[in-house]
DNA sequence: GAGTTTGAAACT
DNA sequence: CAGTTTCAAACTC
């Protein structure tokens, strides 16, 4: 094994100065030429984010700088008692030469730090080879000093002893690392050795950052590595305890075969509280689109800018957005999100995606003006608050897309750049809305064919484009899973899914997912609703009153819901309202989950592909791709995946005693029984509906009490209540029609709305009845 | 609800 | 790849 060598990691933010190209870290010691220039123009691989309880691993960490050698580990250790954050980079290069000014470039092209070498010895270090023990040296910075002091522990070139080197930094550049918090990157394939500074070949450099007097509780960031072009997963799980909002980025693969959703194989996770303030970050992805969806309930109700101008959220080069308390400017709420820095737009430090709430014309115009003045010649687009959404590309081209306007939902966002590679559309996510997406090949396709289709997309949908205009790029609509967010401490989740140049299929716990049609019909987009799992077929089409597709809760006890035994996991969904124990199929255990996904995919690359595909004969013939292996059930029980999916066994099956074929009398008998049962259910449903309608026809002023004097709850079905109910039903009908739902779904939505109305009436009646009883 | 059966998934 | 074990859902009582 090569000798260990360590370097210094420096993570800085230049939050308040988007125009800054670099930060100079000047060491006031004898280190000759000891000026380190951190090119923030290249800091695109990192997200600066709150540092709450940051711990995690960075996999596939590898430098590409030839003079850096192999980086084994990047460790951040906050365990020192002086509230200093330390970052350590462990390098296995045998060469102990200097590396001043060297940029540590991760495999995704991002820069995580600069390295300093040959710094002056300040003190000795007690570094050990303990694998998990980071270098722990810090400089006791003066608490009264407005400057941030960094301490570098490095080898004295003359004595081979570790040393600490203070570095004066511009405070504005260090609003990043929160004291006492750790960010750990581990390269899983790397040697476990952490630091061996004793040897002349193993200089150790550690940086400690003191934030005294600097940190703003609303401006705390960390550097977050993002996806690697390799299949491996890079991510940093973040404890949700203090960071109830998460954004999950999943690597986007372009040019590979179409993939169905894998369960959120998070590449990076970022989280942040969305209480009064929040920070969001876009994580660039090395080879694909990057996308952010912000929870509207939090962001767009509260969301406006803190540091930036009123009513705006800037996403600057440091890739962090801080959203503070609700602000409005002329009644307009805005969220400006920059396009991913991955786009590598040169020269433009600030780019925006603008989200504009409905407003009056003049106000909108004012915002546009403001935006134009903000974006330095690289304005990507603007949107108006009116129903037609205008996308203005940098080239001056405009396109208008009419999107549904829903109350209580933020405006959709459509971002595009005519010169860059990422195009995206963010539809504001609503609560309990999950979506299925699919895929026009270009933004122009959206323009030409997607105008009406877009209106079908549910709030929260994100459409991604992998870029490479005109060369087979694809859009992927990415679901948000707000219902799960709600469960998981109201975390907001954004996921970037693997994408192909042809089609992208994303399966998520999508409510209504079978209801959304692909934007581009010419793309072989597979719907997640198309039998991605046989076990869900029975419930397809059923929609909860919330609009959610009901999903059977799992009961896993031993698998942690991280194996394909678990239906949730197998379907690429997080567990939600399940009965499982020790569940790790959630955002909190994103790292474990990602590993499990990877493991499953290693065993079977098709593990997350639909089990039920189309047969060879015709499009209408479904068949089990793998076939069943039943031995005792005769393939006439739900043990059999074919039978459960209501399809015949095929020659792909290896079952014994199969009775699940067309002419099978047993099967026909079962089918008849099943049909009869279904008819009974339908009759019962119809009866209930009829009863409901009769209830709604109760006279508006019925008797107020029974013969015994008990007051009747239907007293409250007054004409006003009936009218209000009808209004609700009409509104729901119009809404569903406007969303261009299929007629069946429209009917269902109206009926469900009626159910909700009834529940409200009953509740109100009962409450009032209780009050009356109490009063009596 | 407890226990049994079943077959897919995981493991060896 | 085959045999075995594990697992959770389906099923039975």
UniProtKB/TrEMBL annotation:
GO terms for biological process: regulation of DNA-templated transcription. It comes from the Eukaryota. One of its GO terms (cellular component) is nucleus. It holds the Pfam family TCR. The keyword Cell cycle does not apply. It is found in: Nucleus. Residues 690-708 have a biased composition (Polar residues). InterPro entries: CRC, Lin-54_fam, Tesmin/TSO1-like_CXC. PROSITE patterns: CRC (PS51634). Residues 550-663 form the CRC domain. Belongs to the lin-54 family. This is CRC domain-containing protein.
